[in-house]
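Demo today. Your pick:
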Amino acid sequence: MCNLYRMTKNKDEVAKWFDAIEALGGANFGEEVYPGYPGLVVAGGELKQMTWGFPLVMKGKSGQPLKPKPVNNARTDKLDSFFWRYSFEERRCLIPVSAWAEAEGPKGAKTRTWLSLPDSDLFACAGVWRDSDEFGLAYSMVMTDSAGSAAEGVHTRMPVLLRSDDYEEWVSGSPEDAKSLCKPWAGDVRIERTDQPWTRGAASQKSLL
């Protein structure tokens, strides 16, 4: 499960990398992206700003509306559910990423472990997006089982990583073709363990359906 990722390239570099039209205006982004924060997304051939996480409408014990919760990860085996189905079938996107983080260590003292691809300083994770009343344009990252070094003591799940040859099939192919790409990454993964506290800033937020 991914609740924090890093995107260190500027918007011009990202637009060029994905051969996308920049549709951002004067938008600015932090290098670290948390659930509920703005991130860069390639959708419909354009580089756009969206909020990371589909809004999940919550109610209190007395039925009063609560602040929506950003559901920032979509499990591959849940893509046919009502919450995700129409976005998966009609609105798939690419999420530019330099590295993603997982929490490791004992409870109360977890630290950040960064995972990335050893041969690339920018890559794409599979995503879905939609427009919402609560957050405006919002996106979520598709998750699958971990494999190889990423599964060895780090986490049982990881983002669906896409090769450049698969970009077009993910965003424009049939749902069946897109689902065939939702599989564990077969290549190498670089693992960087740090002493950075996991709960620093907004990284403690978690949400997955």
